[in-house]
């Protein structure tokens, strides 16, 4: 008989099946550090939105504002770079 009170009946932390986190970290090497720092914040944002939608969590106005700002930053990063490069000649 195992004591489930230690983990609350959940799976203890450890390696994920399928290596999704390993692939995520490996992919961070292919993007700029600024982009990586913003994109790593998408995971908790997604968890927060799922908690609101599925679990009925309630967020205050400050947290909604923070989520909107983070989402705006991610969307801004996804836009193509509009800076023109100078042409020689």
Structural account:
By secondary structure, the chain is an all-alpha fold. It has a domain at 32-78. Helices cover 54% and strands 0% of the residues. It starts with 19 loop residues before the first helix and ends in an 11-residue tail after the last helix. Mean pLDDT is 77; it is low at 1-9.
Shape descriptor reads flat
Unreliable runs: 1-9
Structural class estimated from helices and strands: mainly alpha
Q: Helical element count?
A: 4
Share of helix, binned: 40-55%
- Beta content comes to under 5%
| Average pLDDT for all residues | 77
The end-to-end distance, rounded to whole angstroms, is 79 Å
Q: Helix and strand string, N-terminal first?
A: HHHH
Largest sheet, strands/sense/barrel: none
- Which value, in Å, is the CA radius of gyration? 19 Å
Query: How many strands?
Result: 0
Q: How is this structure best summarized?
A:
By secondary structure, the chain is an all-alpha fold. The protein has helices spanning 20-28, 33-39, 42-55, 61-78.
List the helices and strands and how they pair.
Blueprint: H1 20-28, H2 33-39, H3 42-55, H4 61-78
What keyword list fits this structure?
89 residues; mainly alpha; disordered N terminus
């Amino acid at each position: 008989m195992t004591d489930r009170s230690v983990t609350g009946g959940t799976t203890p932390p450890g390696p994920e099946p399928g290596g999704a986190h390993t692939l995520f970290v490996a992919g961070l090497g292919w993007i700029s550090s600024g982009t990586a720092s913003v994109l790593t914040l998408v995971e908790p944002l997604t968890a927060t939105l799922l908690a609101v939608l599925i679990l009925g969590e309630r967020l205050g106005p400050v947290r909604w504002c923070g989520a909107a700002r983070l989402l705006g930053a991610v969307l801004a990063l996804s836009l193509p770079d509009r800076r023109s490069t100078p042409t020689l000649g």
